[in-house]
């Protein structure tokens, strides 16, 4: 199985808070050459991580091989997207400190940030009504295609995704691909052979 320590850490970070009452989600699932983990809010797929003929579930909490029925995650990953753009590795590293600050300031909506994407701007913003504090990150997206769109997501999960992808030492890439369908369906951040799927948050 072709996984380095950075990838192993990324997978473990997703499943480490999964309760023992959900043993299947404490596992990394190997099938069709891919390694997959999910905590039901986010999903990571590492393509080409194992032999094609290997079907295996490895519990990352105790490194056992339980006999479980792993959920069908293929249906969770959209095949087509209405909006796509690229985010450079350098831009992701630049925005991370500000995004981390948002996770500390924004407590009203459980660390929720708003993403707004158009041909001219990629904005990440949050505001806290109790203090009146507002923050915004504004970047220019590259290779934008599709419709303008906005959605809300958990800021800590977004930090985790960008930190994990930018910290990969053995995966060579310059840009991340960001793919979105709507404000209510999971969106994808891809880099190299890694797909990181995040579920939006409904804000009323």
Automatic annotation (TrEMBL):
Keywords for this protein: Cytoplasm, DNA replication, DNA-binding, DNA-directed DNA polymerase, Nucleotidyltransferase, Transferase
Q: Keyword Nucleotidyltransferase on this protein?
A: yes
SUPFAM superfamilies, per this entry? DNA clamp
Q: Please name the InterPro entries in this protein's record.
A: DNA_clamp_sf, DNA_polIII_beta, DNA_polIII_beta_C
Q: Does the keyword tRNA processing apply?
A: no
Task: Describe the location of the DNA polymerase III beta sliding clamp C-terminal domain by residue ranges.
Answer: 75-190
Top-level division of the source organism's lineage: Bacteria
Main location per UniProt? cytoplasm
User: Where found in the cell?
Assistant: Cytoplasm
| Residue ranges the record marks as coiled coil | none
Q: Which family does it belong to?
A: Belongs to the beta sliding clamp family.
What is the official name of this protein in its record? DNA polymerase III beta sliding clamp C-terminal domain-containing protein
């Amino acid at each position: 199985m072709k996984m380095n320590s950075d990838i192993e850490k990324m997978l473990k970070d997703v499943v480490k808070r999964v309760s023992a009452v959900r043993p299947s989600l404490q596992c990394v699932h190997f099938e069709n050459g891919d390694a997959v983990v999910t905590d039901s809010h986010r999903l990571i797929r590492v393509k080409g991580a194992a032999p094609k003929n290997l079907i295996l579930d490895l519990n990352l909490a105790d490194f056992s091989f339980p006999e479980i029925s792993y959920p069908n995650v293929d249906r969770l990953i959209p095949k087509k997207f209405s909006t796509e753009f690229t985010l450079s590795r350098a831009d992701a590293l630049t925005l991370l400190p500000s995004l981390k600050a948002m996770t500390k300031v924004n407590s009203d909506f459980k660390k929720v940030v708003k993403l707004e994407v158009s041909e001219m701007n990629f904005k990440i913003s949050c505001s806290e009504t109790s203090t009146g504090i507002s923050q915004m990150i504004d970047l220019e997206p590259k290779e934008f295609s599709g419709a303008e769109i906005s959605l809300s997501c958990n800021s800590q999960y977004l930090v985790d995704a960008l930190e994990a992808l930018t910290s990969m030492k053995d995966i060579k890439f310059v840009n991340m691909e960001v793919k979105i369908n709507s404000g209510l369906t999971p969106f994808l951040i891809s880099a190299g052979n890694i797909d990181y799927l995040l579920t939006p948050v409904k804000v009323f």
